[in-house]
Design a protein that fits this description.
Elements: H1 9-22, E1 27-33, E2 58-64, E3 70-74, E4 79-84, E5 87-93, H2 99-105, E6 109-114, E7 119-125, E8 131-136, H3 143-148
Antiparallel strand pairs: 1-2, 2-3, 3-4, 4-5, 6-7, 7-8
């Protein structure tokens, strides 16, 4: 499925506000603006605020409250890192960032266990045929992850 194009980090944050409102979640946003503030900017020189093309990069960290805890870090390079109850999904396209928590809160996430190699995988299905899968690291599952477990 084709996701809507978000031309800026602020457009993604606005779409995430709509997700928080629809699912009655509290939301906090931390913005980092300028090449000297964002975490992954390498094209600007030292102590430079703008990129060589004159643009002002914008990065945002969004935290959605409740259970499960969902955080979204939106980068200026058109991608995001989304963490669901401690499980990190890196390199999610920025266009899919609002659909990701909507799927989690909408019941399109589940936990799947594997016997060999042993482990649990958190699987989040987005509308269409897009699916993200990450290994749950650590010895114990949170209460939310335990409820998501699919039994064979």
């Amino acid at each position: 499925m084709e996701h809507p194009h978000f031309s800026s980090t602020e457009a993604v944050v606005t779409a995430l506000r709509a997700v928080a409102r629809d699912h009655e979640r509290e939301m906090t946003v931390t913005d980092d603006i300028g090449a000297d503030q964002v975490s992954r900017r390498t094209s600007a020189g030292a102590f430079s605020v703008v990129d060589p093309d004159g643009s002002l990069p914008h990065e945002a960290f969004v935290e959605l409250g409740g259970s499960p805890t969902v955080t979204v870090r939106v980068f200026p390079e058109d991608d995001a890192t989304i963490t669901v109850d401690g499980v990190e999904f890196a390199d999610v396209p920025r266009a899919a960032a609002p659909a990701f928590p909507r799927s989690v809160y909408g019941g399109l996430a589940h936990l799947k266990g594997k016997f060999f190699p042993p482990g649990w995988w958190l699987i989040v299905s987005l509308p269409g045929d897009e699916t993200y899968k990450e290994l749950v690291v650590g010895g114990t599952l949170s209460p939310w992850l335990s409820r998501m477990a699919k039994t064979p």
